[in-house]
Amino acid sequence: MNQFVFVGPGRIGTALTLVFEDAGYEVLGAYTRNVRGNPAVRYTSLTGRPVFDLAEEPRPLQEADAVFVTVPDKAVAAVAKGLADTGQLRPGQVVVHTAGALASSALDPVLCAGALRLSLHPLQTISDPAGAKELLRGAFCTLEGDSTAVERGQEWVQSWGGIAISIAPCDKPRYHAAAALASNGLVSLAAVAASLFPAADPLKALWPLLRGALGNLKSAGLPAALTGPVERGDLETIQLHLDAMRDFPTALRVYCALGEATVGLAFAKGSLTADERETLFRLFRSASADQPRTTKIDTDRGEEA
Ligand SMILES: NC(=O)c1ccc[n+]([C@@H]2O[C@H](COP(=O)([O-])OP(=O)(O)OC[C@H]3O[C@@H](n4cnc5c(N)ncnc54)[C@H](OP(=O)(O)O)[C@@H]3O)[C@@H](O)[C@H]2O)c1
């Protein structure tokens, strides 16, 4: 159980190749639709492993103990079906996908080849696979699938210093919604805050603040990490914020939605009375209801981008 191949040499395919090679496993290479595309070129340059065309070089795929299908979620089922229909799998192989929202049943077509199914989702964000080894060490990784495949997955995750946890298939969409909020949501929130910031280089100025908030979360936890005008019950300050965002409809709606969540958190922390909580809920709901709907992030002049 030491040789792997990847179908999809993108960010996760490249990152896992690097961590597995580092942990002593052998990655025979990756398969793609386009061996001259940017993901394929980056894969070879970062890992030193070859990229194959599925139609031209089936041998490493058949020899591998595990086949990682690291394509976008929407392509997982079709790729698994294609591998099974073209006779490229063999009994006992583990076929793995890394999609957070999909259960291992997305790989059902591989069962008719006698292969095992595993969903293995690293709870980490990889935008540049070159730095993935550090990010994946210590990261949680959820596993679900055929029992023998899950046992192998636990060994693999532990080999790179990850923390393997199991998950019920029916919980995967909700689990992944939480992951997307914590990761992609944070990036989007920074983009909205930057669009409102009235000085040059907003991300540079906001970064120590973002880092401070994350540090508070780590050291104090929830709800103790919360600070700010909602937590202090500063209604007048919040009204100033709402007035200042009149020409920034996206920022205002995000502010109000998060404001409602913040009110619940501040109440749980014991820093708001029940009356203050109701007043703040009403304020955020009415300010948000007045706003036009837009799909664009505001520019720094409050116009649509
Ligand atoms: N990036 C993350 O932070 C992260 C974290 C955890 C889990 N995941 C999961 O990992 C999987 C891959 O995500 P990613 O971020 O690595 O995506 P990605 O960087 O976009 O890479 C996807 C790869 O799949 C190839 N591909 C796309 N469509 C294909 C198809 N129909 N058939 C064969 N190959 C195809 C792409 O190459 P071509 O377009 O050149 O064919 C590319 O090499 C997803 O299920 C995602 O949910 C990602």
TrEMBL record:
Putative oxidoreductase/dehydrogenase Rossmann-like domain location, by residue?
A: 7-122
Pfam families in the record: DUF2520 (PF10728), Rossmann-like (PF10727)
Lineage, top-rank taxon, reads Bacteria
- DUF2520 domain residues are 140-262
The protein depicted here goes by the name: Predicted oxidoreductase, contains short-chain dehydrogenase (SDR) and DUF2520 domains
Q: Which organism is it from?
A: Alicyclobacillus macrosporangiidus
> What lineage is this protein's organism placed in?
Bacteria, Bacillati, Bacillota, Bacilli, Bacillales
